[in-house]
Amino acid sequence: MDVLSALDPLFFVLISAGAAIGIVFGAIPGMTATMAIAVCLPLTYALDLNHGLALLLGLYVGGISGGLVPAILLNIPGTPSSITTTFDGYPMCQRGEGERALKIGVVSSLFGGLFSAAVLFLFAPVLSDFAIKFSYVEKFLIIFLALTVIASLSRNLLMGLFSGLIGVWLALIGTYDVSVGGNGDTRLMTEAMEPYLSEGFSLLPVLIGLFGVAAILKEAEQGIRENTEGMRITLEKGARFSLGVFRNQGVNLVRSGVIGTFIGMLPGVGGSAASVLSYTQQKNFSKAPEKMGTGVPEGVVASESANNGLTGGALVPLLSLGIPGDSTTAVMIGAFTLQGVQVGPLFIGENLETWNTMMVALVFANLVMFAIMFFAIKYVARVVMVPKYLLYPIIMIMCVVGAYAINYGVMFDVWTLLLFGLGGYLAGKVGIEIAPLVIGFILGGQAEVYFVKSLESFGTYTIFFTKSPIAMVLWGLIVLSIAFSVYNLVKASRRKTQEGGA
Amino acid sequence: MGLSDLFEVRIVFDESHLFFPRIIQGLLLAMALVIVVVRGIPTLRAVWAGHRTWPVMDGPFDHLRFFGTLGLTVAYFLLMPPVGEMVPNTGLGFLIVSIPYMAALSVLYLHRRDRRTLLLAMANALIAPVAVWYLLARLLNVTLP
Q: I need a labelling partner for A146 at 20 to 30 A (CA). Which of A429, A464, B87, B89 fits?
């Protein structure tokens, strides 16, 4: 009954507020769920764990869902994962079926979200029970696997791996902490940097810089174009929405939900991979594939149920292994750390109450998201028109607040924000990818401890191959993920030469 | 010497803080070399031959807004602590410096500066920091400069 005592009115108010703010962020092109969470983090500093998580989960679900609004109305994906929603949503809108398309998207989102929550509830505890038996060797290999999966799914395997390694390197700056068995010496810095960096870079200022400040710098370079100016939104004309649309979409809903959830579980994979995959699958199985892309409901259904399936899926590795499933959950790891909670195999067992309240929050967030988007869609549609010259300055000061307050007032954290904002902006220019870098940064410290401790106890590198059958299976998966990306690379270059020849 | 000796490793505790960083730096260096060979050299050739521009400089670049954002932000960060020192532990340093920063940033980002938009920008620059400051510093006791 402990769970019920945690569920006070404030808990539900925070979820609803989070979902509403998240939808706004998701709906504004160029702003993402990750940014919503990064910017709203300071609000959780004063809350306890359960309430903080309520707000964050609301933001997460709202932020992922809100992206469908501009995708359908303006042909601009509000978040990367709603890119495929534009394929059929916008043509529907042009025919005057904007509201119908939005509502189809919202219902699909709700299904995807609830489906993935169910998978999370069933799957995460099983995976944690399994992962509890892991020793340092397997834990290191899990991190290694996570990094190769991210790299192989990024645009370029080489750059993906390189970015991940840079993240690991950045994480190593500072002290090799005594509390994890280190010798307490600092490395990768000069003496002059020691007063600032003896603890290394703080996680949250780095994340807020990479996802908040870098995005604004990129927009500034483009001249802060108000890309919604002069556009008009027309809803309600033509065919009305009815649930009958979903009559033949059962298989599509479930398949897309499954794809979204399981892609979400792969660490570091962005949302667009899930919706693109489920959209192409629907096209393969559709009775009328030639109509996909001309404004048919099934396209919107496939895209939206997949991208909301991500939410529960991405939480699985976060809560059972301590490895974030995407950049949004990476920011959530920061929030957990802030509350003094270590996510990993022991999390669910030791924090059963938190786990249960999280599940309640996730389900409730989906319902609130549905209620807001379904019944107030006309008002939500207007937020896509909020001008950037008002919005971006607010984001900047929120980023500063988040960075400054995290360690109770360290100005160096604010400079970290700018450093990583600028660094993230420049990194994007030379092809370094932010998602693997962030995952590398988050996992780098642990990777070092597991690696060095394994070698200190066994004294040979071969232990990573021979420790246990699980280690061998993990190596198999590592090889598989690299092979997969090489296969993709070969396929892509072959297609390019074919197109060149034709 | 057997094959198994090849994989043997002994980590000296006093040096253990350098063990993993050295491996990572070695890998980074090796990968950087591979990337230069695989990607860098073809790009350089293309740039020299005039087929494309430097990757950092392609596309339109709004110098005013980009460097304006950077400059204003640096000034903002530099001014916040000294102003905060004048009225310590109140978070007022944040509030006082944020208002002109937001106003300047908004005006910088505006494309059509007429009365309506400027008024909106000023109202926003006044209301947003006050709301954030009141909610966080006063109600929730979050530390601000």
A: A429
